[in-house]
Design brief:
Helix 19 crosses helix 21 and helix 21 packs across helix 22. The protein is of the alpha/beta class. It has 23 helices and 28 strands. It has a 10-stranded mixed sheet, sandwiched between helices. Bound molecules: zinc ion (2 copies) and fe (iii) ion (FE). One zinc ion (ZN) binds next to helix 4.
């Protein structure tokens, strides 16, 4: 019996070869009908024998193209339509509903082979791509995903490209960024003739020049990672004294010469997302120590665009590939802007004329306990949505201040922006507002609720204030946002004990929180424990100078030790700190776990002044990694009105005692073990009291690999079910997902 069905499919089904796949499938089964792209879905009309339609539907899911992701299928039987005699792909149409935009995809194996084939017409073509690879989000100006709605629209396809584009048998059938030497974008060195470009790039790198290279989602600053003078020059010019730079290495063999790579790490390095993976250094060989000072890990990625490979043809060494920006501003994406902003940094500019519609940085991940941890979610991952276990109204969550991302959500999907940067100045704020507008337009979600951080001084809070007239504006406490972020990220709907440990967040009582323990679920959350507040004198200056955090603590609790511990600190600084503590002026009280790491780092003389966020804690962790000390320090837990206060006074007292006798690395390790013990003991007490067995870890402190390595197996051994973040960062890059909870229906 003949039947006709209308089918609608949502998900990543555009720009991934889905239509040609359906076309071929229908043809092979002798079915008639059509397929078209709509704004957020594909529509199919299928007609023919019932049996064959059944097979069609089965294979549709089973054999879908590798890059597609089907979220939902709807099927409806309709009356037999008249004279459809064939199966065809018809013109796209606009529709309402969800939009799914594919992230950008690293060059595929087939394209790589063609690019390396001297007989192929795209031999060494820098922009080769197909339906299985290439740019997506970064070139999409609007939906449905068709060439005239991408930044490729200015390139008129040549005859041969056109042929491939319309040939359902071709790998480039409806590949929107399709192009070749005759018709596609070009790459050039600013101010120079467009010939032997890659040879010249190699020469410049060899000479120790700094290059601004326009990439997939923005500019990179690139230079020879083995040339110490150039690396130092880049640090000075980029105003980035010691925060590690990422590297690009030409292949896996090269990476394995420098770093340990386990099976999971190798898989991720080679994945279609191609993020930067933090790898343990085996032998730094010729890499300058200024690439990642005082670090045991290197952030490394493989080439992901065709032209990255072409660069390595003429430059056999390793490249620093760091975001083209100044300190933590958003990445620069346009030629003119790059020349203006980066003119004092780069010696040479490499431009191309495929415009970048949306900026996107490289993603950064690491693997610990065989689990993937995302530190920066951007290229390859964004803007694929996070599916959440609750329904929300159209909501825009503005995120935090550092490592900002925002989230735009509706029903059970949340579209998180790629990493934006630190929202500290007007320029960044302007880019942030632009990206928000783009998201609202692209995903067709008009927010009804706006959520911001409780902090009264965040720029995002000001931004939210402006919209009070137009929509409902709500504030959420920072660490509660971390809590909900974890629950939504992992789809946890029942009760959980969650440790929300990070650097800084404005607390509900006006103090600075950061070492919080919550119990709750997606309906409610309760603060059940936190580190005992301690005073820090000097405000933001103290955060940049951890010695002042240590000095404040010692001045308050162990004043007799000051001279012994800080003989080297300026007497004036000691005097002021003492006065401020006595008078209780220009002081904040904090329960921050991150600040406790800073305190210990400074106390041990590891890091007294920082130039990037988290530096003191990271260097303390690196020191501790050298030790196999298993002991931990004493600490106190006091229960006051339902809430546990964790007092680290005994820990600090003991550290001061041991400082004279023991090695730094052992003290650092014992301190890490102490935090692990605190987590374990609180977990056990709360499990007993509330009968909850799930433990969550969220917040920047859990980027500490040593802490994850010691804490998670220990908790699991005691029978706990442990959850860390999977899709979004555990740092403040993940909090916008948690903030979205206030949009709950
Ligand atoms: Zn390809
Ligand atoms: Zn062409
Ligand atoms: Fe945080």
């Amino acid at each position: 019996m003949e039947k006709t069905y209308k089918i609608k499919i949502w998900g990543i089904v555009q720009g991934v070869g889905f239509r040609p796949f359906v076309y071929r499938l229908a043809k092979s089964l002798n079915l008639r009908g059509w397929i078209l792209n709509s704004t957020g879905s594909v529509h199919i009309l299928i007609e023919g024998e019932e049996e064959k339609i059944k097979k069609f539907l089965d294979d549709l899911v089973k054999e879908a193209p590798p890059l597609s992701k089907i979220e939902k299928i709807e099927k409806e039987e309709i009356n037999l339509s008249e004279n459809i005699i064939d199966f065809s792909i018809i013109e796209s149409k606009e529709d309402t509903g969800f939009n799914f935009i594919s992230p950008d995809i690293a060059i595929c194996e087939d394209c790589f082979k063609e690019m390396r084939d001297p007989k192929d017409r795209r031999f060494n073509y820098p922009f080769i791509n197909c339906t299985n690879c290439g740019p997506r989000y970064t070139i999409i100006e609007d939906l449905p995903y068709d060439r005239d709605k991408t930044t490729m629209k200015i390139f008129q396809m040549c005859e041969r490209c056109e042929e491939e584009y319309h040939d359902p048998e071709s790998r480039r059938f409806h590949a929107q960024p399709i192009s070749c030497y005759d018709c596609g974008p070009t790459i050039w060195i600013d101010g120079e003739e467009a010939s032997n470009i890659f040879e010249k790039i190699g020469k410049y790198l060899e000479e120790g020049k700094i290059l601004a290279i326009k990439g997939l989602g923005g500019f990179h600053l690139a230079c020879d990672a083995t040339n110490e003078r150039t690396v130092i020059k880049l640090r000075e010019k980029k105003k980035r004294p010691s925060k590690p730079f990422a590297l690009m290495m030409k292949d896996m063999d090269m990476i394995k010469k420098y770093c340990y790579v386990n099976e999971e790490e190798e898989k991720i390095l080679l994945s279609k997302e191609r993020p930067i993976v933090l790898l343990k250094i085996k032998d730094p060989r010729d890499i300058s120590e200024y690439v990642a000072p005082n670090n045991k890990y290197l952030g490394i990625m493989l080439p992901y665009t065709p032209y990255h490979y072409l660069i390595f043809d003429y430059f056999p060494k390793n490249l620093i590939m760091t975001s083209g920006n100044i300190s933590d501003e958003p990445i620069i994406k346009d030629n003119d802007h790059a020349k203006e902003r980066l003119k004092n940094i780069a010696d040479v500019f490499i431009f191309h004329n495929r415009n970048i519609a949306h900026r996107v940085d490289d993603s950064v991940v690491f693997v610990e306990n065989k689990e993937l941890n995302v530190i920066r979610r951007a290229r390859g991952y964004a803007p694929y949505p996070i599916k959440i276990p609750i329904k929300i109204k159209p909501t825009l969550a503005l995120g935090g201040e550092l490592k900002n991302t925002f989230s735009l959500g509706k029903e059970n999907y949340v579209f998180m922006s790629p990493h934006v940067g630190d929202l500290k100045d007007k320029d960044t704020l302007q880019v942030y507002e632009e990206i928000i507008q783009e998201f609202i337009r692209l995903f067709r979600i008009e927010p009804e609720i706006l959520v911001h951080d409780l902090h009264p001084q965040y720029l995002s809070t000001d931004f939210a204030e402006k919209f009070k007239k137009y929509m409902e504006v709500k504030a959420i406490q920072h660490h509660k946002a971390h809590f909900f972020s974890l629950l939504l990220d992992r789809g946890i709907t029942d009760n959980i004990i969650c440790f929300s440990f990070d650097g800084t967040g404005y607390g509900e009582d006006g103090n600075i929180w950061g070492g919080e323990v919550f119990i709750g679920n997606l309906e409610e959350v309760k603060r059940v424990a936190h580190f005992k507040y301690f005073p820090v004198a000097g405000g933001d200056y103290a955060i940049e100078n951890p010695r002042l955090i240590a000095l404040s603590y010692i001045t308050k609790y162990l004043p007799s030790e000051i001279e012994k511990i800080f003989p080297h600190i300026d007497p004036f600084e000691k005097e002021i700190t003492k006065k401020l503590i006595e008078k209780d002026e220009n002081i904040f009280y904090t329960s921050s776990c991150g600040r406790i790491f800073d305190l210990v780092s400074a106390l041990l003389g590891i890091r007294e002044k920082i130039d990037y966020e988290g530096q003191a804690a990271i260097e303390l962790e690196m020191e501790a990694m050298e030790s196999d000390e298993e002991d931990f320090y004493p600490f106190k837990m006091i229960k006051e009105k339902e809430t546990f206060k964790i007092d680290i006074y005994p820990t600090i007292e003991k550290i001061i005692l041991e400082k004279e006798k023991y090695e730094k690395k052992d003290i650092a390790k014992k301190f890490h073990n102490t935090i692990t013990q605190i987590i374990l003991q609180i977990s056990e007490i709360l499990r007993e009291e509330y009968k909850i067995n799930k433990i969550g870890l969220s917040g920047g402190v859990f980027q500490n690999r040593l802490l994850l390595r010691t804490t998670i197996p220990l908790l699991r051994n005691k029978g706990f079910e442990v959850f860390t973040h999977k899709n979004v960062p555990t740092n403040d890059g993940g909090i916008s997902l948690g903030q979205i909870i206030l949009g709950k229906e």
